[in-house]
Records
---
Amino acid sequence: MGDKQRSLPGLPVPGSGGNGAEVERSTEPRLKVVDRRQLLLRTVDVERLIPEDHPARAIWEFVGRLDLSGYTEQVRSVAGGAGRPAFEPQLLLSLWVYSYSQSVSSARAIERLCEHHPAYQWLTGMEGISAHTLSDFRVTHAETLHELFVQTLGLLSADGLITLERVMLDGTKVRANASSHRFRRKPRVEAYLKEAREAVEALEAQTEEESSRQMQAAQQRARRERQERLELALKEYDKLEAAKSRVKRVSTTDPDARVMKQAEGGSAPSYNVQVSTDAAHGLIVDIEATQAGSDYQQLTPAIQRIEQNMQRAPEQMVVDGGYISSHNITEMAKRGIDLVGPESENKSAATNRRKSYKYYGVSAEYEASKFIFDTQTNTYVCPQGKRLRYDAKQESHGTRRYRYKASKLDCQTCPAKSQCCPRARHGRSIERSELLPEVAEFRQRMKTDEAKAIYKTRSQVAEFPNLWIKAKFGLRQFSVRGVAKVSVESQWVALTYNIQQWIRLLWRPKLVSKLVPA
Ligand code: SF4
C-alpha cells in the first residue's frame, strides 16, 4: 500500500490556514491508495517464513534421520564436473511428503507453490524447482523408495510405535487413471495397434516441408506412446490368457487397471490397494496396489511382505470376511499366526445340495441323511440295505469330503432306483464331510467374547488409514498409470501417512514440552 495522501483539486489542504482565519475543512475521506508501479526490495528471513511447530519442519527433521545414500548414489552430477548440481534428496523427499500431506499430487502444482507458498519456500530455501525434476524423482526410484519405507518402519519401531502384536489388513479400491469406456476386446486392440504402427511409420516418412520439425516431434511422441500402450495391452491379454482369467477386456489407456466393484456402488477401472495397519498406534506396515478384484488371495502375500519389511511376522492378523477361506485359515495356523475374522458358514453349499437332489430327481426318502454310516467298516448302508464303499476324498471350503459309492449292479437291479438315483449310470454315491481341524478350531475361537471384542475394533483401526488417504491426501484416483507406478504412488502415500502420525504422536508433544516447560 502506498503512503500517499489524496488531495482533491480546488479544495484547500486541511490545516493550511496560518492567519488565524477559520479554515474550511474537507468532508472527503482520506484513503491510502494502492501503488502497484513501485518496486520494492525486502529482506526475507527464510527461517521465519513458517512457525516453529509447522509440519514442514517436522517432515524435514524426520527425512533427515533417514539414510538417503540410495538416492545420492544415483546422482550423476559430480563435484568439479560440468552441469548444474542436483537437488539434495532430503529436499525432494520432503517436498513430496509435504505435498501429499496437503492433497497435492501434481509436480506442476508443486512447482507453482514453490514460487509463493511460505512452507514450500522454507523447504526449498526460496529456490525454484522444475516439475520435470519433481516428477522424475517421484516415479524413477521405486526400489529406493521402498527401502526408505522400510527404514521408516525401523525408526518407528525403535520409537516404540510399532509392535506387530496385532495387524489389521484391509483392501480399498482406488480408481485408476483410465476411462471405463476404453476397455476393449483383443481383436479390437490388435486392429488399433496396426493402425497406430502405420501412423507412426507415416509420420516418420513425412518430409520437413510437410510438417514443422517441432510439430512432427510432438506428433511422433504422442503416436509412439499410444503404440506402446496398445502393445502393453496385448501383453496383458497374454498374461490373462496364461492365468486362464475370465477378464476379456483390457483398458487401452492403462492396461494394468481392472474394472472393480466400488464401495459406494457401481464399477470402475481401479486397483485394489491392500493396507496393513499395526494396531498399536495405527501405523501402516505394508501397502501394495494389486489387480485383484477380491481380497481373499491377498492375506498370505501381505504377511510375506510384512515379514520382509519388519524381519518378523505379525502375531495376530485381523481381517474382514473377504479374507476368510479355509486355505487362509490353514495357512495362518501353519505359520503360527492367530487369525481373527468373522465366522462365515458356507450356507450356500447346503442350499445347493438340496437343490441338486431335486435336480437329480432324488426323492426325500433317499436323501443322504437316510443312509446310515457304519464306523466299524467305514461304509454306508442304504435304505435298501446295500453297502456303499469308500471311494475318494477331497478338501474345499474348510471341509474334507469323503465319497462313498454303491455297486453298479446293486443299483441297476434295485426296485428303488427311480427314487434314489434315476440319472446315475454307475451307482449311487454320497458324501460324508468333516470340518478341517484348523477350521473347526477357528470357528470355535471366533465364538468367544475375546475374539468378538478384537474384531469390533477392526473397522476403527483398519479403515482409518484408508479413509485418511482418500479424504486428507485426496487419493481417490491415481495420478499415474500401470501397476508399478501406482504401487510407487501408494508407497509415497503410506510414507506420508506414517510421518504424519509420527508428528502427531511424538514430534508435536516433544515440541510442546520444550516450549512450555513443566
Ligand atoms: S439305488 Fe442303490 S443305493 Fe439306492 S437304494 Fe437302491 S441299492 Fe441302495
Note: The pocket of iron/sulfur cluster is lined by residues 382-384, 386, 406, 410-411, 414, 416-417, 420-421, 427-428 (CB under 6 Å).
---
Amino acid sequence: MTRKPHLLIPTLVFCLCAGCATNPITGKQEFMLIPEEQDIQIGRKYAPEIEKQMGGRIPDPDIQSYVNQVGQNIARISHKPHIEYHFIALQDKSINALALPGGFIFITKGMLENLQTEAQLAGILAHEIVHVVARDSANAMSKEIGLSILLSAVTSENTPSGVLTVADLSKQIMGLRYSRSDEQQADLSGLDYVVAAGYDPYAMVETMQILSNQSKNRPIEFLSTHPAPENRAAYLRQKIQNSNFNLANAKVGKEQYRAAVLDQLTKPN
Ligand SMILES: [Zn+2]
C-alpha cells in the first residue's frame, strides 16, 4: 500500500494558486496569467509606442506637471500607492484616456479640452487608476493577446511580415475592452478615490454628461470601449446619494483647471 498519490494534492493546490492574486477592488481571488512584476515591464515596453501613435506628449511642461500632480493626489490614496504612476497628456485630438499595466496612464488633448474642472480630471484619472490597481489591463491583454506575444514583440519596424511588432500590438491594446463589471468597478471605486482625495464626486456625473453631449456631434473614442455614459451617470449619482460623504470642503477647481489647462491649450504659440 502506498500513500504517495496524496502528496500530489498539496502540489496541485500550490500550482493552481501560483497564478492567483487578490483584487483589492473586489476583494476576490483572481487567476492572473501575468505575474504582477511583469506589469511594469509591459507598461515600459508599450508606453513609448502608445505615446507615438497618439501624437506624442503635449509639449507644455506645466500642463504635464499639473495632470501628473492631480493623478498623484489620487494614486497616493489608492489601494496600491507603491506603484510608480505616470500621468501623461497626449496631443491626440480624440476624446480618450487609457491605462497600461504598471501605472502608465494617458489622457488626450481632446479629453482635456472638453473637461471644465480639476475634479472632472481627477475623476477620469481615478477611473484609470482603478484599472491599474485591479489589473484589468493586464488581465485583458493576457487574455486577448497573450503574455509571450506581448513580451516577444519586436520594436524594429523592418521586420519580416507575420512578425508582430510593438506597434501592431499597441493598436490592439488601444482597442481593448474590459468587462462591463470591470468598468462599473472602475467608476464606483474611482468615485471613492475622488472623495478620499478631497474632490467633489458629482464631477464624475458631469463628465458623463459632457461625454454624452459630445457623442451627439462626433464618435467618442472613450465611449467605443466603455458603457453608455447615461447609465454610468445614473449609478454614480445613486452611489453619491446613498453614501454619507462629507462634501463640505470638496474641491471642484474650476479656476485652477481653466488657468492650468484650458488657457494653456488655447494660447497661441
Ligand atoms: Zn474604463
Note: The pocket of zinc ion is lined by residues 127, 131, 178, 183, 186, 226 (CB under 6 Å).
